[in-house]
Design a protein that fits this description.
By secondary structure, this protein is mostly helical. It is built from 7 helices and 2 strands. The chain has a two-stranded antiparallel sheet.
Length: 164
């Protein structure tokens, strides 16, 4: 049991670092922040790790990216949105790319787009101007979903899940 905890903790730390890197440094600047593919690694971690570790990856990676790149104002939204996003995915089953995990992309996208729109509307006290950010959030969700599918299919072909 101790060996499995160390393995999960190590894998969570690596995923957190990857989420941070792909969020903070490999992104497209937008009018209020940036669009990135870090969510794809959050989806993948949620399919491989037990729930508390998956939540740590989503929250930790996003929080580090927001706070260390000058966008700390987004950190409260990221903590909630990324933490909840993990709940849509499952690690049960033999494959990462399962029907449930494919369907999980839908509420994950809705939460990302709707959550960041609502947060921006609340902090700016304006429900019209934040509409401009929606295309960036949709692009982020689509690109992250494509990355998740590519990595998940590759990992499934290599039987990564069974070897963890």
């Amino acid at each position: 049991m101790k060996h499995q905890n160390i393995k999960n903790l190590t894998l969570a730390a690596v995923f957190t670092a990857i989420v941070f890197l792909f969020t903070a440094y490999l992104h497209i600047p937008t009018h209020t922040g940036y669009t990135h593919v870090g969510d794809g690694f959050i989806y993948l971690a949620a399919c491989l790790l037990p729930l508390p570790y998956g939540i740590f990856v989503g929250v930790g990676g996003a929080l580090l990216a927001d706070c260390l790149t000058g966008f700390a104002i987004w950190a409260p939204a990221s903590v909630i949105i990324k933490g909840l996003t993990v709940l849509f995915f499952t690690r049960n089953g033999k494959k990462i790319i399962s029907t449930k995990n494919l369907l999980a992309l839908i509420p994950a996208g809705i939460l990302c787009v709707g959550g960041y729109y609502l947060y921006e509307a609340l902090i700016t006290d304006n429900f019209i101007a934040p509409l401009a950010g929606i295309p960036g959030y949709v692009i982020q969700w689509v690109l992250s979903s494509i990355l998740f599918l590519a990595l998940g299919l590759s990992a499934d072909r290599l039987n990564i899940k069974q070897n963890l």
